[in-house]
Amino acid sequence: IWCDFNALCGPPRWQNDYLELARCHHTVFISDIPRLDGTWDDRSRRFINLIDVFYDRKVKVVISADAEPDQLYSGVRLAFEFQRTVSRLKEMQSTAYLEAPHKG
Prior knowledge:
Layout (H helix, E strand, L loop, with lengths): L1 E3 H5 L5 H10 L2 E7 L7 H16 L3 E6 L13 H13 L3 H5 L5
Parallel strand pairs: 1-2, 2-3
Helix pairs in contact: 2-3, 3-4
């Protein structure tokens, strides 16, 4: 499935929304991920939650973003949480992760 960042992380979403996506799709393409700063913390938090769910469920993620993962977030408030997201995004590119079965 292909989704735009603003469709996934713009409007309010519950974690269950992301769990349902993970249940139904083994691969998700996410396009147009902008650089996120402190003014985007609501969307940044949703993106963090989305990646957490996809990581746990072994969903394969292909992203198109305005920056490399470690340069996507320049805010302060979610810096610690976003570092975990960066780490997960990098691990999600590994052969071991890509070969792991989907846990939808």
